[in-house]
Every structure is written in structure tokens, then in C-alpha cells.
Design brief:
Largest interface: A-B, 18 and 19 residues
Radius of gyration of chain A: 16 Å
Number of domains of chain B: 2
Number of helices of chain B: 10
Shape of chain B: elongated
Helix content of chain A: 55-70%
Strand order of the largest sheet of chain A: 1-2
Largest sheet of chain B: 5 strands, antiparallel
Number of strands of chain A: 2
Number of strands of chain B: 9
Largest sheet of chain A: 2 strands, antiparallel
CATH topology of chain A: Serine Threonine Protein Phosphatase 5, Tetratricopeptide repeat
CATH class of chain A: Mainly Alpha
CATH topology of the largest domain in chain B: Histidine-containing Protein, Chain: A
Order of helices and strands of chain A: EHHHHHEHHHH
Oligomer: heterodimer
CATH class of the largest domain in chain B: Alpha Beta
Structural class of chain B: alpha/beta
Strand order of the largest sheet of chain B: 5-6-9-7-8
Radius of gyration of chain B: 19 Å
Structural class of chain A: mainly alpha
Distance between the termini of chain B: 32 Å
CATH superfamily of the largest domain in chain B: HPr-like
């Protein structure tokens, strides 16, 4: 039995994201140390910890409000490039869902697409450049396909998370074209992109948030 | 009321330092630093940048300068959060040179577009800027002016057939045309309706004047056209002859 995608779900998603990012903090640091500057795990952990504080202080009333809270907080607290990238993703998602109290499958698919488009606009990256986009684009496509096939929102989320995980793995053999990893050339081959990895973790948390028997 | 500037840097100290430097050349311009994270650590903060944008735009708009990478993304994000106001522009410019050029331009009363352009052309190749990019459009019909400035050799102040006013001046103050006088000159000239070149560079651009590296004893070949040409050349003459007040 899955939950509807309402404000409570959005809050659970953000809380579970914070938990999974904290849990994988060292793993993300290790990934980033291999091909970046090693701060992705710590930056993301700091950002999502700050989200927890804000959720406690002022619980958002709609999914859109929750996304906006996440956007503002990540952009202010993360510090590195992940801040504006994830922040823009959540901000565009917030705009896409508007004041809806509950997301239906087409709104969910539209929100994921808007989030991905925001990351593309901000980071100027394309698929295949070993970035977050390699996780997000397959996720967006999977959600859109699920929505078109009449799936329920939870099933579309599941499809998106699974596609994001495969997308993150697909970055392993790639040469980076954006960010600090691009300086490494072929030496980036064999390492997973930390942003794609954290994207997959966060999208999986969205699935768990819809499954949890709260 | 002039255009304000926002200086975004990963470092709180760097942003504050750029503001301190630019303020020397633009005492009346609102300059707001947005450096570092909320806790002062290295990084950029959306809240700081958004707050700074609000403070810098006192009605005439604001121009935002950034240092590296994610500072640009944070500034773009801040603009998106604020609903992409048309009065706040993000300059694609080197931080220090761009900030100084922008500050001087703002001090002289330029529009946000003008200030942004001043920042973005702060490092343009000297001749290209003086003759081509900046003046290209307005310069039509004045081609002979460049020839006069280039080939005419030393000239006394006189009005040319094509309306150009020229002067040959010698720097007498020990420091020459350094940053402060360059800023003062460019600022005052920027407020005039004139096309003016000093040794082939745009006299309304502080960065271009500074690239001359003109020391004591250097001759300045000044050539101006436009309604305020005489006034502009008179200004340069009086400033140079007064040693920019440094004698």
C-alpha cells in the first residue's frame, strides 16, 4: 500500500534523503576524492541536515512548499556546485507543482522533468558528460513512460529511481566533460560520478517515502 | 542614484577586499559584498547573494560580479529566486578588473546595461576596444579621427576639419596616470557626450587608461569628437596640468 504524494510524503522524502546522505557521507566523499575535490559528501550532508532543522521549525503545507524549502536551504548551505544544482532542481520542481496538495502521476513526471531541466540550465551539461544529468535524464524518461502507461505515482517514482541508479552506474566508464573531474581526462574512467550517485540515492528515498507505513 | 554592485566570491575576505578597492574609485556607488558561506566558510550563499542584490539595487538597478564556478551558479539561482528582475544584471567579467571598471562606470551615472558592459569589456584587447568593439557603431563617419590620432604625430590642441579636438599633454605628477586619476578621468569623461581616445585607448574606460601604464613624463595624445569634445579635452588638460592634484 503506497501513500499519496502529499505534503507528508514530501517531508518524509526530505527526511529520508537526509538520512541516506548522512549514511553515505563517507562513500560520497570517497567518490568525489577520486575525481573531484572530496567535499560532495560533506557539503550534501550539511545541506540536508539544515533541511531537517527547517522542517522541524516550519513544516511545509504542500509538496511545492517542501521543495522550495529544500531549494533555498541547499543553495544557502551546500557551498559547492551541488548547492545551486540541487537547489535549482528543487526550485523548478516547486514551480512545476505549484500549490497542488497532492501530486498525480503527470504532475510528478512534469516536476521531475522541470528539475532535470533546471540542472541542465544551471550546469550546462548534457547526457554522457559524467554528471548528475546521467542519473536525472533516464529517471525523467522512465517517469514519463510510466505516466503515459497509466501507472500510479508510486510506481512512476519506482521506475524513475531504478533508472537513476542505472544511470549513475553508467557514469563509471565515462570521461568527465564538466566540473573539476574534467581536468582528469581518462583518469576519471572507472569512477562513478558523485553527483549522479547522490541523485540516485535521493530519488530512491522518494520511493521509500511513498512506501513507508507512517 | 547610481547603479549598485554586488561582489560575489567564495571568500568573504576576497569579496570585502574587492569592495574596498572599488570604493576608492567610486565613493558614491553602493557596493555590497556577498562572500563566503553563512558561517563565513569558503563557498557561496544564496541568502547572502539575494540580500546583497536587494541592498545594491536602490532604484537604478544593480550589476553582479562573481569569481569562480559555483559563484556564477549561485548568482544565477538568486536571480531566479527573485523572479529574474530586469534591473539586476549578471556580468561575465573578471572579478577585480570588472568590478573596478563597473564601479567607475556606475559612478559616472551609466545605466545598468552600461555598467555591465564596462565590466565585460574591462579586459578587451586595447586597440580592439578603443577602435572597434565599443565605439564601432557610433564611430561611423569619424574614421579620419583615428588616422589623425595615429599618424598626425604630436599636435597642439586644435579643432580638426572633421570636428575632432586634440591635445598633446605630458604627465607631470610622479605617479603618472595610475589607478586613482584614471578612475577620476574615466568617471568624469563617462558622464560626457564624447568619444575620446587617449593614446589610442578609450578615455571613458578606467581599465583601458590603466593599461597604458603611463608614467611621469609620458606624452598623452588626446583626441575627442562629439558635442562635449572641447569640454572633455579641457578637462583632461586641466587634470594633467594640475598633476591630478598630487603635486
Amino acid at each position: 500500500m503506497s501513500h499519496t504524494l502529499d505534503a507528508a510524503w514530501a517531508q518524509r522524502w526530505l527526511r529520508l534523503s537526509a538520512a541516506v546522505i548522512a549514511e553515505n557521507r563517507m562513500a560520497l566523499i570517497e567518490l568525489d576524492r577520486a575525481i573531484g575535490d572530496g567535499d560532495h559528501g560533506e557539503n550534501m550532508d550539511r545541506g540536508f541536515s539544515a533541511i531537517l532543522e527547517k522542517l522541524d521549525a516550519e513544516p511545509p503545507a504542500t509538496p511545492g512548499a517542501a521543495f522550495k524549502l529544500a531549494a533555498m536551504t541547499l543553495m544557502s548551505k551546500v557551498g559547492g556546485a551541488a548547492g545551486p544544482l540541487y537547489g535549482t532542481a528543487f526550485l523548478r520542481a516547486a514551480t512545476a507543482v505549484g500549490d497542488a496538495t497532492e501530486l498525480d502521476v503527470s504532475t510528478l513526471a512534469a516536476a521531475l522533468a522541470a528539475a532535470r531541466d533546471g540542472v541542465v540550465a544551471r550546469g550546462k551539461a548534457e547526457v554522457g558528460e559524467k554528471t548528475m544529468i546521467d542519473a536525472w535524464t533516464p529517471a525523467v524518461e522512465a517517469a514519463a513512460a510510466a505516466a503515459a502507461a497509466g501507472a500510479d505515482p508510486a510506481a512512476a517514482l519506482e521506475a524513475a529511481a531504478t533508472a537513476a541508479e542505472a544511470g549513475a552506474i553508467s557514469t563509471d566508464p565515462l570521461i568527465a566533460r564538466k566540473g573539476r573531474a574534467s581536468y582528469l581526462g581518462e583518469r576519471a574512467i572507472g569512477h562513478r560520478d558523485p553527483g549522479a550517485a547522490s541523485s540516485a540515492l535521493i530519488l530512491r528515498a522518494a520511493v521509500h517515502a511513498a512506501e513507508d507505513e507512517a | 542614484m547610481s547603479v549598485g554592485l554586488v561582489i560575489v566570491s567564495h571568500s568573504e575576505k576576497l569579496a570585502a577586499g574587492v569592495v574596498e578597492l572599488a570604493a576608492q574609485m567610486a565613493p558614491d556607488v553602493v557596493l555590497v559584498a556577498a562572500g563566503g558561506m553563512d558561517d563565513g566558510g569558503i563557498g557561496t550563499s544564496l541568502e547572502k547573494v539575494m540580500t546583497a542584490m536587494g541592498l545594491a539595487d536602490t532604484g537604478a538597478g544593480a550589476v553582479v560580479l562573481t569569481d569562480l564556478g559555483s559563484a556564477v551558479m549561485t548568482a544565477e539561482s538568486a536571480l531566479e529566486f527573485l523572479g529574474s528582475p530586469e534591473t539586476v544584471l549578471l556580468a561575465d567579467a573578471p572579478l577585480v578588473e570588472g568590478a573596478i571598471a563597473a564601479a567607475v562606470s556606475a559612478q559616472s551615472g551609466a545605466s545598468a546595461d552600461g555598467v555591465c558592459k564596462a565590466a565585460e569589456t574591462a579586459l578587451a584587447p586595447v586597440r580592439a576596444t578603443a577602435v572597434g568593439e565599443v565605439h564601432g557603431v557610433e564611430h561611423q563617419g569619424n574614421e579620419s579621427q583615428d588616422g589623425a590620432a595615429q599618424d598626425g604625430g604630436p599636435q597642439k590642441a586644435e579643432s580638426q576639419d572633421d570636428g575632432a579636438v586634440t591635445a598633446l599633454l605630458t604627465l607631470i605628477n610622479p605617479m603618472g596616470l595610475h589607478a586613482r586619476p584614471a578612475a577620476a578621468l574615466a568617471g568624469q569623461l563617462g558622464a560626457m557626450d564624447v568619444e575620446i581616445e587617449v593614446n589610442g585607448v578609450d578615455g571613458q574606460s578606467v581599465m583601458m587608461l590603466m593599461t597604458l601604464g603611463a608614467a611621469q613624463g609620458t606624452e598623452l595624445n588626446v583626441c575627442a569628437t562629439g558635442p562635449d569634445a572641447q569640454r572633455a579635452v579641457d578637462l583632461v588638460r586641466s587634470q594633467v596640468e594640475a598633476g591630478f592634484g598630487e603635486l
